[in-house]
Specification:
The two termini are 34 Å apart. The protein is 30% helix and 34% strand. It has 2 domains: 113 residues, Rossmann fold (3-Layer(aba) Sandwich); 155 residues, Sandwich (Tumour Suppressor Smad4), CATH 2.60.200. The protein is built from 9 helices and 14 strands.
Length: 307
């Protein structure tokens, strides 16, 4: 078996770079032909992943965070080559969602000895994502995190960025169409996800499943800075649904979102701006090696698969 490892040396504030010898040593125990390549610039992981597929690699493993995973997925989404994911970034929400351990060496063992499971793949405009997109306040928070908060990562970095973003808090008027049904909101943020958490553990859509064939949506409506501080501890625990007048959950396969003013948005931790968002779901569209998944809870999707 030929294995390509794509390592982001900057992931996890340098944590991933220190894993290189451990990863190669563990793979050598299994006798696999492996080649590790480090990313050198933003978007490089997409290029490496494409070349790995073209070169006939049997397995691609990422050593980085959610942003690295997102890039690699975009580089190999049209192939059937499975992906293995190691927890080595600032945010490792996707790795957690597919049941990967925090220890990357244990992760190698789980990938090599585990089975390949197919998970849902989401599309946003002309690119793919496998975990989450957050537009509005959430995108601004991710932007501030990516600007760098020295010596802090994971959940503390996210929380510090939230406090910083509160000083420029603004609401957005948006139109959203979910599977043909139109809604309008004045909203703080809209998250469209394929997994339960983001931001290093914020359980923004606690009922999400990565294998149910549906996108989960969380809409946070008009709130004040004080209410954001009240909302956040609940969201960390996945209990913000208690704020029924402020939070709305939806599900759908096709989602259209439009804002008159450009919105910052984060896609698996990477930040962009846009006014129009077109989401679609590809059920069981991507193979992940070593994944440990909960059974899908959506009866309609399960029935359709059985048929």
């Amino acid at each position: 078996m030929k294995v390509k490892i794509i390592l982001n040396p900057k992931a996890g504030r340098g944590k991933a770079a220190k894993l290189k010898p451990k990863i190669l040593a563990e793979l050598a125990k299994y006798g696999y032909l492996s080649h590790l390549e480090e990313t050198q610039w933003h978007g490089h992981a997409i290029e490496i992943a494409k070349k790995a597929v073209e070169s006939g690699y049997d397995l691609v493993i990422t050593a980085g965070g959610d942003g690295t995973v997102n890039q690699v997925v975009n580089g190999m989404a049209d192939s059937k080559v499975p992906l293995g994911v190691l927890s080595a970034g600032t945010g490792n929400d996707f790795a957690a969602m597919v049941g990967m351990p925090d220890d990357p060496v244990a992760g190698i063992r789980q990938i090599i000895e585990g089975e390949t499971k197919w998970v849902d793949l989401c599309r946003l405009n002309d690119s793919y994502f496998i975990s989450s997109v957050g537009a509005g306040f959430d995108g601004q928070v991710a932007y501030n995190v990516n600007q760098g908060i020295r010596f802090v990562r994971g959940m503390p970095a996210y929380l510090l960025s939230v406090v910083k973003t509160l000083f420029s808090l603004r609401l957005h008027r948006v139109k959203m169409v979910v599977d043909g049904k139109e809604r309008e909101y004045r909203t703080l943020l809209i998250a469209v996800t394929n997994s339960r958490s983001y931001g290093g553990g914020i359980k923004i859509t606690p009922e999400a499943r990565i294998n149910d064939g549906l996108c989960e949506i969380c809409v946070v409506k008009e709130v004040s800075p004080f209410e954001v501080l009240w909302f956040l501890p609940l969201a960390i625990k996945g209990e913000h649904g208690r704020l029924q007048d402020k939070v709305e959950f939806l599900r759908g396969r096709e989602i259209y979102l439009e804002s008159k003013a450009p919105l910052f948005y984060q896609i698996d931790g990477e930040v962009f701006q846009a006014t129009v968002f077109r989401f679609s779901m590809i059920p069981e569209g991507f193979p992940v090696r070593g994944a440990v998944l909960a059974p899908p809870v959506n009866e309609e999707v399960a029935t359709a698969k059985e048929a």
